Amino acid sequence: GAEGSTLMSYFSKNQIRALKPKITFSTLRDLQCPVLQSNDLQGKPEESCSTEELFEWLGAVLNQVSLDNNSSSFLSTYCCPEPNTVVEKAFLCTITGFIIPEKIIQLLEQLCCYFREPKLAYWLTLTVHGFADSPVSWRESEHGFHKGGENLYNFVIFRNLDYWLQMAVGAHDDCPP
C-alpha cells in the first residue's frame, strides 16, 4: 500500500535505475596460447596442456600479465605452458555488471554458434566471475571473503562442442555438487 508507493516515488525522484553492464572489447595480437585436447584433461608432455595450466594461463591473460618470462620484470616471470602456439589475433570481450543466469546461457549459445562458420579457433572460453566480497556463494553457505574472495567458473568450449567446466571458490565456500 502506502509504503510501496512511497518507495516508488523515492526511487523515481532520485533516478535510481538499473545500471547497464559495461562492455569492453580488445584484440590481443601474437598471443601465446596453450595447446588443448578436449578429451585430455591432464595434458600430455609435448602434446597438450592440462586444465590447471590453462586456468593459470587464463588468469595471466585476463589480468594482462606479460607471458615472456622476463627476468627483469618485478611483476611476473610467468610464461605460457608447453606446448603452445602463437595466435595472430585473439578477441577479448569483458562484460561488467549484474548479469542474470539466463543471459550467461544466451552468451554460451552465441559462442557455440561461432564454430558453425569456418573459423581458425579450436576453442574459446567464457569466464563468469562473482564479486570478491559478494555475500552469497553456491549452495546454502555465505561467501567467505577471507583472503582472495575467489568466486568464479569458466567454460572452455571446443570446436566439436565438447566442453570443460572449471570452478574456483575460497577454502571456506561450498562448491556445487
What is the string of helix and strand elements?
A: HEHEHEEE
Question: Quick check: average pLDDT?
Answer: 79
Number of structural domains = 2
User: Total strand count, please?
Assistant: 5
The unreliable regions are none
Main beta sheet: strand number and arrangement?
Answer: 3 strands, antiparallel
Cα Rg: 20 Å
Class by alpha and beta content: alpha+beta
Name the overall outline. Answer: globular
Explain how this protein is built.
- The protein has three helices and five strands.
- It is α+β, with helices and mostly antiparallel strands and 177 residues long.
- It has two domains: 77 residues, no CATH class; 79 residues, no CATH class.
- The longest helix has 13 residues.
- It is globular and about 65 Å long.
- The termini are far apart.
- InterPro entries: RNase_P_Rpp40.
- This is RPP40 protein.
- GO terms for molecular function: ribonuclease MRP activity; ribonuclease P activity.
At a glance:
The protein is α+β, with helices and mostly antiparallel strands. It contains three helices and five strands.
Write the layout of secondary structure elements.
Elements: H1 2-13, E1 22-34, H2 51-62, E2 84-96, H3 101-113, E3 123-129, E4 151-158, E5 163-169
Antiparallel strand pairs: 1-2, 3-4, 4-5
InterPro entries: RNase_P_Rpp40
GO molecular function, one term: ribonuclease P activity
Organism: Neopipo cinnamomea
